[in-house]
């Protein structure tokens, strides 16, 4: 069965996408951006309590699918649902991630494992399943959401920075492996973004923005626009790259 798409056309009309962690923040903005461009989107969320459906939450042509991306069995079930609804997959956005802050000297093994398994292993599991759907078609787009912390480190996020740096290396390896099959793999690395974060209100984000060359933190929709670019035809000759969306917070050499 194929989910109904949004009314009208668009540059992604007829394309299908899966966004992990699409129930909030950057992930939800990505869902909205892809749907606005005409794609039909499967929106992953981790638990029954995080289900994003509701008035105004999901655009037309989208449906929610629950899975903990750390769990290979749940990931397989999620992709079975995607195959049932879409018959194939054109775009995967690996956005699911966690960041429980912890100073390095007090960072426990359990927290380390949670972050690496969600942010890095989850992306691997989903990318592998997605690639198996894309290879027979000879085309596809995989976009992984990293972070500027992959380049700068984080005093309360050694686990997070390590997972996001690993995601960049994974993306390059997948880009080389999947290029012969017409599949591109790229990474978007946001800087500080205005999403729900412990202890940060509007004034806190404003303060953080003062230290960024463009004078403010990113909006989720601005990160989503970069993802949409890498998911579309305009990026057909781009693969294995990392696109920083950080207002100049981190500048490539």
Automatic annotation (TrEMBL):
Q: What is its EC number?
A: 1.1.1.100
What residue stretches are annotated with the Ketoreductase domain? Answer: 15-208
**InterPro entries given for it?**
KR_dom, NAD(P)-bd_dom_sf, Sc_DH/Rdtase_CS, SDR_fam
Give the top-level enzyme category. Answer: oxidoreductase
Coiled coil spans: none
Sorted keywords for this record are: Oxidoreductase
Q: Give this protein's Gene Ontology molecular function annotations.
A: 3-oxoacyl-[acyl-carrier-protein] reductase (NADPH) activity
Q: Name one Pfam family in it.
A: adh_short_C2
**PANTHER family in the cross-refs:** 3-OXOACYL-[ACYL-CARRIER-PROTEIN] REDUCTASE, CHLOROPLASTIC, SHORT-CHAIN DEHYDROGENASES/REDUCTASES FAMILY MEMBER
Q: Which family does it belong to?
A: Belongs to the short-chain dehydrogenases/reductases (SDR) family.
For this entry, the protein name equals 3-oxoacyl-[acyl-carrier protein] reductase
Q: Where does this protein come from, organism-wise?
A: Streptomyces demainii
